[in-house]
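hey so i finally got around to running both of the ones u sent me last week. sorry it took forever, my laptop kept dying halfway thru and i had to restart like 3 times lol. anyway pasting them below in the order u listed, first the sequence line then the structure token line for each. didnt double check formatting much so if smth looks off just lmk and ill redo it

first one:
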Amino acid sequence: MAEFCSLFQRIGARAVRAGLVVLTAAASLLGVAHAAPELIGVRFGPSAEATRIVFDLAGGPEYSVSGDDDGVGRLYVEFAALELENADKAFRAGQGHIARYGFSERRGSVQAVFEFGKTARIKEVFLLEPSAGVAKHRLVVDLVTADKEAFLASLPERYGDLTQVIEQATAQTDAPLVVSAAPQAALPPTPTRKEGAGPEITPAPVETLTVVIDPGHGGRDPGATGQDGTLEKVVNMAAATELAKILEKRGRYDVVLTRDGDETIRPDEREALAREAGGKKLFISLHADAIDKHAVRGASVYTLSDKGSVRSAQIAKSQGGYHVYDIALNDYDSVVGDILFDKAQDTTLTNSSKFAAKLIENLTGVTPLLNRSHRKGNLRVLLAADVPAVLLEMAFISNAKDEVNLNSAVWRRRTMTAVADAIDAYFDEQQLQRHADARAGAAQ
């Protein structure tokens, strides 16, 4: 038990700095009682060029700070646990650089959202313990006027994927570790290379982007059949081949097909092919829907449901040597392993939903869509915990007009081009986020 606690302290200390509040989750699983701090109120100290945000709290918080450049900019302060009144969840007017603010609950944590009216950077974040005459904790965030680039650079360090978190969490160090959300000291600047001062350092290789395309059904499994006898497995393969051709011409992806002929492949084998592919991955399974009501038509996009998330965890636990993001969960205590799996799956589900949104955005106006285009499903091919994945129902093969489209080379080329554009947009956004995270890390 002592060995486990030591390991967990190392993981918790670094994970808090990465914005992953691990200690509270572990304490709950281990039955350790920790009273959640209570929000007393939020105060502002505004001036022309600076704004101070003060959280008054009964109890010491575990928190992380992040943000994005949406609009003028948004600042987030996430608490591992926090008791607050329902009235606090409603947005209300802020002061100084803050146009408005409010609170939202996210998977057991509470997030304070501050929307800028005027962009600012974080000057300092610190926690004041209770002192003589002051019984409350005070979390203080100081802001000063700046542009968006300076704001992003001032955000605390965040890690791009779970692998980096584990590497930091398990690194050996002789220095004592203290679990604290206090701001880290800035690193000294990296010296610039002078001309003639030695060989130039070769930049790190560009990471491979891999798109796994899964033509649904195949072989002994024909899928659905259209009114004119069209087999789903045939149109799925035709669309997958077209999408692969478009992506390969763009020259930025490694494209993997789960089948390249009329083969029978089990759903778990399709998932395994996605997980075994290298690089930054994205999985898209192509299908054609069917229903007895032949008037229904249009495309829809499925991502994993909550029930599917539970099923994914059950499958992972039943398999020896299960890995997520190249980390062997079996190398860790079951409590830590469960936490790491949940964090990996949260990241994957978030990215799957982002890609689904890009798909719907790019398919709008190109092909008919169902009214509720983004759906959730407990689908076996979407269960990989570390591969963002969607299932695209391209059209209803049971609808006469959609069946004609599925057999049309012109429609197929136009629709798969829109899918390829969504893939481009997804990876572009991922790379922009990693660059923003890198800038934030460099500012520490």
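and the second one:
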Amino acid sequence: MVPNEMKGIFRSILVVIMIGLTLAGCETGDGETIALNVAAERTAIQEVLMRQQDAWNAGDIEAFMDDYVKSDTLRFTSGATVRYGWDAALDRYYTTYPDRGAMGQLTFSDLAIDVHSEEWATVFGSWHLKRGGAYADIGGRYTLLMHHGTEGWKVLYDHTSQADS
């Protein structure tokens, strides 16, 4: 065999092994193997997002933020600005959306939830704010890095972009 063909075969074997290990389960610190139910974790993450959507649509920004990690490790990126910490992200929401008219009605769609382990997942999706009066409708895309800790799934990194009008 040609060396490049061998590299391709080796890579394919590694991918199959990694997929098998992911599907088989995860090992805890004491060597115990637990099954990772990817479908159940995706459902749990989707429930977090729907809870956020409901809180937003009720005009409750703090309840919306309950599903973010309440720590200085939270990273929120929007446009060219990166904010660190839960308080900074909360302040950004209050500044950007000062009243119910600015908040509008939030809809999340086009969700792609990838569960990487019992502790880590990424979410890719679209957001849309239907607004009225002086505020135009807006929307865009977002990518979330989510961490599962003692309080369940929480957003650790949020990178949100707004589509051009």
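quick thing i noticed on the 2nd:
The chain has two domains: 1-35, 37-162.
anyway thats it, ttyl
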